[in-house]
Each structure stands twice: as C-alpha cells, then as structure tokens.
Amino acid sequence: MAIDFLLGKVTRLHDDIDLITWIQYRDQLESALVEAGYEQVTVKEEFRGRQSDFQKDGVDITFCYITTSEDRSIIMNGLPEWVWRFDSLLPQRFMLNGISAYVLNPRQLLEEKEVYEQIGRIPRPKDVESKKVLHRIIAELN
User: Fold this and answer.
1) For burial by CB atoms within 10 Å, which of 75, 108, 111, 122 has the most?
2) What 8-state DSSP symbol labels residue 34?
3) Percentage of the chain with pLDDT > 70?
C-alpha cells in the first residue's frame, strides 16, 4: 500500500497491510490492537523479534519493528546486517482516500524487494509490478 500512498491512488487490491514502527512501541501497539478486536497471529520463531502479525475481517496486518544500531543507522530489529538507507523515513505524510500516513522512501521500498530476492525469495507477480512502479516513481523524483 505504500506505493498507493506515494501515488495517491489505489493501484491494485490488497489482502494485507505491512506497517513499520519503532520497537519501543511494540507492547503498547499489540495491547491496543488486541483490545480493538484484532487477533494476534503467531509468527515463526526467527521473526518474533522483528514483527507482529494480526488479522481482522479477513485482512492480514504485519507490523515490522525498526531500531537503531550503535552507529545510529536504522535497522530491522534483530537483523543488524540489514542497514536501511539514511533517508528511508520520509518526513512528510501522503494521502490516500482521506487517510494520511507516513511512507517509506521509494528507494527503500525498492531495496527491500531486492534484498528479498538476494536471500532467495522468488518474486511474486505483484513484486515484479511493484518494482516497475517504484522505478518510475524514483525516476520522477530525479
């Protein structure tokens, strides 16, 4: 959905939502979602330090947690080898259908897709299309 927010329009149907927040908000976030009627879904052991999964009304929601390393680089919590771009967190909000949200830098989004491929994840058709759109967005920024 980040691409949709960057473009200001829905580009395809989504069956999940992926969100990023700082690790220090994890406990408060999980409690608030459970209280709001979301079902917390167990994640694989290797992902437990870096994400929480929820479901409600047939929609899967994943919260990934970021933190900073000793040198103040942004990293995925529990995955220090994946250093994010210094400009990965854009300062402005983007609008989509009356909803305002912060969105990751399109360059960061593209790098994420490429990292997944490098570690052996086979690109899905939606990943291939997303990469094309991200390349176009980045080209327009230059």
Assistant:
1) 108
2) H
3) 100
Q: In whole angstroms, give the CA distance from residue 102 to residue 67.
A: 17
Cβ partners under 8 Å of residue 125, min gap 6: none
Q: Which CA distances in Å does 100 have to 30, 52, 55? A: 21, 22, 22
Question: C-alpha angle 86/87/93, rounded to 5°?
Answer: 145
For 12-35, write each residue's pLDDT tens digit: 888 889 999 999 999 999 999 999
Contact yes or no for 61/54 (Cβ under 8 A): yes
User: For residue 81, with 0-12 CB atoms within 10 Å meaning exposed, 13-18 middle and 19 or more buried, which class applies?
Assistant: exposed
Chain mean position to CA 55:
16
